[in-house]
Specification:
Strands 1, 2, 3, 4, 5, 6, 7 and 8 form an eight-stranded mixed β-sheet that branches. Strands 9-10 form a two-stranded antiparallel sheet. The chain is α+β, with helices and mostly antiparallel strands. About 35% of the residues lie in helices and about 35% in strands. It has two domains: about 170 residues, Alpha-Beta Plaits (2-Layer Sandwich); about 45 residues, no CATH class. A hairpin with a 6-residue loop joins strand 9 and strand 10. Helix 3 packs across helix 4. The longest helix has 19 residues.
């Protein structure tokens, strides 16, 4: 291979890398079964593809996880807000979680490599259901562009798995997204509490459920689910 061919196949790109997945997918599969899980994954893929178009590129979509590449954090936030807003309009769809990091990565033979990608994936794994979690590199660029439709909340320096140095993390709270929903503690499905199949008061807290199966499981061992 000559140098010109190598330059075509290998290049370093600076982008905003995003991992977004379905929070509690394993629990949801356990409660609602494989067929429901398969239908959910298909709907998730269609939702991601339709709302990323025009903002970035869905580089990889495997099961309940999407790897998306955006040109900058502003495009990433616009796309994520659209995805979360759409999910908030759906009944009995589980919440998502997202991790964002901006930096340089090697693009070779159609794949991305480097610590930037690894860090973005670890940030996503750290995120809670319904949360968009970002590194300081993302937040710095968002502040430079004066993005007003998000609230930036500093978490602090967090040690992530297989990342030797603590990472400065922020929660990006999207305005007017999913605010009317609660989370079923058993299967992690988002539930409109006014249309929930049932609710239980436990330790001065009220929990809502998407199905009688979830009510029954919670009743047997509530603390097990709350500890998750």
């Amino acid at each position: 291979m000559n140098e010109q061919d190598r330059n075509i196949e290998e290049r370093t790109l600076e982008s905003t890398f995003c991992f977004i997945d379905i929070a509690g997918y394993t629990a949801l599969t356990d409660v609602h079964g494989a067929h429901s899980a398969a239908d959910l994954v298909q709907e998730f893929g269609a939702l991601v593809n339709s709302n990323v178009a025009g903002h970035g590129q869905v580089h990889e979509l495997i099961g309940d996880c999407a790897f998306i590449v955006y040109p900058n954090p502003v495009a990433a936030i616009q796309s994520c807000a659209a995805i979360y807003r759409k999910v908030g309009q759906l009944r009995e769809f589980p919440v998502l979680r997202t991790g964002l990091h901006h930096g340089s990565a090697l693009f070779k033979n159609g794949r991305y490599f480097g610590t930037t990608i690894n860090l973005a994936a670890r940030v996503a794994a750290q995120a809670k259901g319904g949360e968009v979690l970002a590194t300081g590199a993302v937040v710095e660029l968002l502040r430079d562009h004066h993005v007003d439709e998000i609230e930036i909340i500093h978490i602090g320096h967090v040690t992530l798995k297989n990342i030797p140095k603590a990472t400065d993390l922020y929660t990006l709270r999207l305005s007017n997204v999913m605010h009317e929903y609660v989370i079923d503690p058993v299967c992690q499905m988002q539930v409109d509490k006014w249309q929930a199949i049932g609710s239980i008061r436990h330790q001065e807290q009220t929990y809502w459920f998407c199905s009688l199966e979830c009510v029954q499981r919670f009743t047997k061992c509530p603390d097990d689910y709350l500890q998750r």
